Amino acid sequence: MSISGMMRTSASGMAAQSARLGTVSDNIANASTHGYKRAFTEFSTIVLESGRGSYVPGSVDTTVRYGISQQGGFDYTTSKTDLAVSGNGFLLVGDGSNAAYLTRAGSFVKDDQGYLVNAAGFKLLGYPIVNGSAPAASNSTAGLQEVNIATMSLEATPSTLGTHHANVPVSATAVAAGNQPSDNLATSAYSSKASVTAIDNVGRTVTLDIYYTKTGANTWDVSVFNAADAASSTAPFPYSSAALSTTTLTFDSSTGQLASVAPANPAGLVLAIPVPNGQTLTLDISKSSELADDFQVLMPTVNGNEPSSVTGVEFNKDGTLYAVYGNGARVGIYQIPLATVPSPDNLTPQAGNVYTVSADSGNLQIGFPGTSMFGELRSSQLEKSTVDTATELTTMIESQFAFTANSKVFQTGGELMEVLVNLKR
Questions:
Q1: Residues facing residue 62 across a β-bridge
Q2: Cα 412 → chain centroid
Q3: CB 198 within 8 A of CB 190
């Protein structure tokens, strides 16, 4: 019984070392695979019950584990669609089905249909940005879409938001009623004028003339006209169409800061201007003032862009994917989330250097890079394999000697068994 037991134990030892050599060979083969996480084999004993004066040899069991939570180094690349995660979290990818996989392999390139696909053929998943936001569920992959950048080949974005903080001179002379820009007469007078350019729904530029007219102590009229309706460039009044917007500004006499806007606007101290053939342009004027200085507008801004082809894409560290247009405009089109689980080392590895959630890993948690428990997204970088070839070669030599020793035990048991058989002869 002891001879057969020693043979069984040595066979178990050879099987265990074979499993260890299997993980070593996989690790060495993937030493240059971006995002690969090292596998390793752990041993545990199986002890059989022995009686007094006798010993029953047991065997050895193996468990394969993965160092999925281990952070790898970084390779720097020239491609802006190469992604790496520094810290906690995984990129979410799909294979065309409804399943979502976790990966750290971020070598994405655009395929012939415009999808961002990594080296294993998985497509990057993200949330499309709609009206400036990308709603996401923290515990579900609902709403995720395969990221496609081909649909952004030509875009025109109408103007909707802007800033126009102006200082009007407190010493300006008031213009009498009935002869102001809002009256739109040939004799209309004003205190100061500024112009901004907006974009309509089809991408055409619309120049808006903004007239500031003092009507009384700390009170100003603001009238906005479409510059295309001006009588001439030197004598614009009367415009062929009425003012697009007329607003009364009231300033605090003690501080010179803007106190109120009439008619009152729920959005605050803003100008609401309906752009011809466009959207309502909301100009923030909350920092406007009436001070003892010349008229000036402080760094005006208006969003929107004319039709332009996409020249490239780029990622922000918060996961926002921007389409970069030839006219210099940057438009956020997707936000890329990260996912994690309470026990990443217990995720189930799948072909293609991806992982799926298991019963031991815990439930999926989703968030955006740089928030809460999630790491940072790095563009133009790839995470290196966590394999150290020198360590693997050392492990291989150890397993080789252990396998050989177990084989000698098995061989010895076989020889002893042969002796027993020959005794009968």
A1: 43
A2: 62
A3: no
DSSP string, 345-381: GGSEEETTTEEE--TTT---EEE-TTSTT--EEEETE
Find where tokens 């990308």 sit: 134
Q: DSSP assignment of 298-311, as one string?
A: EEEEE--EEEEEEE
* Exposed / middle / buried, residue 121 (Cβ in 10 Å: 0-12, 13-18, 19+): exposed
Q: How does pLDDT run across 296-317, given as a tens digit for each residue?
A: 999 899 998 888 777 888 999 9
Residue 343: CB atoms within 10 Å: 13
Q: What angle do CA 379, 91, 87 make, to 5 degrees?
A: 70
Could you give phi then psi for residue 420, rounded to 5 degrees?
-60, -40
Predicted confidence (pLDDT) per residue in 58-99, tens digit: 788 889 999 999 999 999 999 999 999 999 999 999 998 888
- For the chain, state the CA radius of gyration: 36
Residue 99 burial (CB count, 10 A): 12
- Measure the CA–CA gap between 307 and 326, rounded to whole angstroms: 9
pTM of the model: 0.67
Could you give all domains of the chain from N- to C-terminal order, each with its CATH number? 2-67+386-424 (no CATH), 74-155+309-383 (no CATH), 159-303 (2.60.98.20)
Q: Are strands 192-199 and 205-216 parallel, antiparallel or unpaired?
A: antiparallel
